[in-house]
């Protein structure tokens, strides 16, 4: 059909999150090594315009508020013409790998965010 499959947008949001964290000096791998998992507990996507194959997409990732036990992001995806393709939102929970229970946002992430 010449358009990007709708299921790919969840992966685009993940790329936006991981690169946003990396820009703060934090990686998912580092978090997992420290015993923290970050599963997605909510995902929302609003399709506005189809992304076409070979479009150059930019994922804008916005932290909604200070993370506590959950961290929430908003997203905007635009194409090379700065046309809005979609918006979205994810909520993730900080989980302790050993206990499999929710835990607070790690201090090193809060420090990186300036909180």
List keywords for this structure.
115 residues; alpha+beta; Thiol Ester Dehydrase, Chain A; four-stranded antiparallel beta sheet; two-stranded antiparallel ribbon; 3 helices
Detail the topology: elements first, then pairings.
Elements lengths: L7 H16 L4 H6 L2 E2 L2 E8 L10 E6 L6 E9 L5 E10 L1 E2 L10 H7 L2
Antiparallel strand pairs: 1-6, 2-5, 3-4, 4-5
Mean pLDDT: 95
Unreliable sequence segments: none
Q: Which topology does CATH recognise?
A: Thiol Ester Dehydrase, Chain A
The gyration radius over C-alpha positions equals 15 Å
Counted beta strands:
6
Q: Based on the coordinates given, report the CATH architecture.
A: Roll
* Domains, number: 1
The SS-based structural class is alpha+beta
| Helix percentage | 25-40%
**Span between termini:** 46 Å
Q: Strand percentage, roughly? A: 25-35%
Instruction: Summarize the main sheet.
Output: 4 strands, antiparallel
Q: Can you list the strand order of the major beta sheet?
A: 2-5-4-3
CATH superfamily: Hotdog Thioesterase
What this model shows, in words?
This protein is of the alpha+beta class and 115 residues long. The chain contains 3 helices and 6 strands. Strands 2-5-4-3 form a 4-stranded antiparallel beta sheet. A two-stranded antiparallel sheet has the order 1-6. 13% of the residues are buried.
Quickly describe the structure.
The chain has three helices and six strands. It has 115 residues and is an alpha+beta fold. The N and C termini lie far apart (46 Å).
């Amino acid at each position: 059909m010449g358009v990007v499959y709708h299921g790919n947008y969840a992966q685009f949001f993940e790329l936006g999150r991981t690169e946003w964290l990396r820009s703060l000096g934090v990686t998912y791998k580092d978090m997992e090594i420290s015993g923290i998992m970050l599963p997605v507990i909510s995902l929302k996507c609003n399709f506005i315009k189809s992304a076409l194959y070979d479009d150059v997409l930019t994922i804008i990732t916005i932290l909604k508020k200070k993370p506590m036990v959950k961290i929430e992001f908003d997203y905007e995806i635009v194409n090379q013409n700065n046309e809005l393709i979609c918006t979205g939102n994810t909520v993730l929970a900080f989980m302790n790998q050993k206990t499999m229970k929710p835990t607070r946002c790690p201090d090193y992430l809060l420090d990186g965010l300036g909180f």
